[in-house]
Amino acid sequence: xxxxxxxxxxxxxxxxxxxxxxxxxxxxxxxxxxxxxxxxxxxxxxxxxxxxxxxxxxxxxxxxxxxxxxxxxxxxxxxxxxxxxxxxxxxxxxxxxxxxxxxxxxxxxxxxxxxxxxxxxxxxxxxxxxxxxxxxxxxxxxxxxxxxxxxxxxxxxxxxxxxxxxxxxxxxxxxxxxxxxxxxxxxxxxxxxxxxxxxxxxxxxxxxxxxxxxxxxxxxxxxxxxxxx
Length: 229
Ligand SMILES: O=C(O)c1cc(=O)[nH]c(=O)n1[C@@H]1O[C@H](COP(=O)(O)O)[C@@H](O)[C@H]1O
Known about the structure:
The protein is of the alpha/beta class.
């Protein structure tokens, strides 16, 4: 895998017309494009199709979390959009993750989000996921993989432990990635791209560090070079 193959660029924009120039600029230098809640709520499946037309697999990040029957239906609808990957929250439980896998069908990889990278140990404690983060994340990752998830979303700080727990065949997708010196924003559990890859990340989800400069393609190139093996 080249460095650029490992980068997933987050299209966190309010409309497709706002996202398109960025998506076109970064697509040749990344392995995947992510349509998340902001864009999907505004534009729906056409945004997934427009992103896929740029020639990269699309990760539809809906972080589904509801009763199993509802999630199964939502995953079935999401699969019709042409997305290659779809997120659900592992904390929805085994039956919910299994329902998402059924709904998504064989063409769409269900990824389970463990504990959001914006949460620190105190936040996790407050929502009842008593820390340290790593133990909650590993527990949720195991549950999700047992229920059929083909990938796990976790922070770079837990990726090593998650890899040890779930083995080599599971795709580890890692947001909360900040090149040295980049603003942390609302992220808590962060590391640099090269630290994340060395710890075992397969894919790095990167948004603001690519979007905030005036040359997203150059930003993607610099990150790709920093993780080239
Ligand atoms: O599922 C995700 O992609 C995700 C999970 C998570 O725990 N944390 C997280 O930041 N993300 C997403 O990853 C992207 C990170 O964006 P930046 O913080 O701007 O690099 C956003 O699109 C988030 O929605």
